[in-house]
Amino acid sequence: MRIGIFTECYKPVINGVVNSIIGFKTGLETLGHEVFVFCPTYKKYRDDPKDKNIIHIKSWPLPGKSGYHYIFPLDEKSKKIASTMDIIHVQHPFIMGDRAADTAEEFKKPLVFTNHTQYEQYAHYIPFSKKFVIKEIVSYIKKFSLRVDLIVAPAKGIEDKLKSYGVKTPIAIVPNGINVERFEKKIPENKLLTLRNKYDISKNDIVLVFTGRIAEEKNLTFLIKAFKIINTQISNSKLLLVGGGPEIKRFNDRIVKLELKNKVTITDYVPYTEMPKYLSLAKMYVTASKSEVHPLTVIEGLAAGLPCVIVKAPGTGDIVTNNLDGLVTKDDTSDYANKVVKLIKNNNLRSELSKNAKLTARKFSYLETSKQMEKVYNNLIARTHTKITRKSREN
């Protein structure tokens, strides 16, 4: 099978969507398929020679530091390659969504769309009435869904949300996958010394780790306030926020205001290959985000053997099971803090949840999730061919 993945971001940009693409590309190629990634051009970046079939489409960087581009229509060379795909799979509903839909229509290819994001959770970035923006986003997703043959939802929560929008397009649930082995490996203590020195973390400190974008949609204000309560009870606790983003200064200012400067650290961007080391510093993974669909960051934490403490919400709640591999709390800072303190103090509970966390993560290895995606593709292609055969009979 020849699979064309259309995306608005790819290497050197690293985020959840890019990591999802990398996982599925690796898994599907392992299963014997050819995977082509249609993505923007990136100045001063050369593709890894090992990363085959990367098709760059002429693009122009959008203002700011998002890493996203305005992507021009496919040129003839790219179109010719796209015409040979058995299936087209787009990762975003916006500019590249239109490019993928136009290509699929022109060459009569089945089109799949993965809804990676609860887009309405990002409404605060647009300087208009939040209620109006959310309404427009929902309307746009509904309209775009009419152009695709199948929507992939990485978790049940996003399937439910799409149906609540009134989306009628068929939906298949296929979770995102990771390289579990990379995060399961125990990092020797001598390889963590540089990080401990850099962030002033001793072996006696109780480290809580969050990984991801440093932005308000991750509910970091809630997390930092909850940690303030935690730290009053566990004086040697520290919060490590691993990631970069548009609001680092604002959150650093908030950390200072809450008198947590020596207790909460924001690392800024960290190479993905280094992430297992950062997770190895921690006793547990913490997040209060309610904007996720199926966060790979949480799965990575579980794979590292970290019990996860989450706020009850779709996305994270589709991965973490209360009292099995983590703790699920109310949307309340006191309840969140109390659950974390309970887990810090109860070594037996933490040990049990840690064992189960690794078992949960193994269900989301990129090879296992790629096998699920393969079935989805085969079923859609068969259905599309049947539809075409029926049309030709009718004519």
Structure, described:
Helix 1 packs across helix 14 and helix 8 (220-233) packs across helix 12 (333-345). This protein is 43% helix and 16% strand. It is globular. The strands form three sheets. The protein has a seven-stranded parallel β-sheet with strand order 3-2-1-6-7-8-9, sandwiched between helices. A six-stranded parallel β-sheet has the order 12-11-10-13-14-15, with helices on both faces. It is α/β, with parallel strands linked by helices and 395 residues long. The chain folds into two domains: 2-177 and 365-394, Glycogen Phosphorylase B (Rossmann fold, 3-Layer(aba) Sandwich); 180-362, Glycogen Phosphorylase B (Rossmann fold).
Could you outline the blueprint of secondary structure elements for this entry?
Blueprint: E1 2-6, H1 16-30, E2 34-40, E3 54-57, E4 59-61, E5 69-71, H2 76-82, E6 87-90, H3 95-107, E7 111-114, H4 130-145, E8 150-153, H5 156-165, E9 171-173, H6 180-184, H7 193-198, E10 206-211, H8 220-233, E11 237-242, H9 248-257, E12 264-266, H10 275-280, E13 284-286, H11 296-303, E14 308-311, E15 326-329, H12 333-345, H13 347-362, H14 366-394
Helix pairs in contact: 1-14, 8-12, 11-13
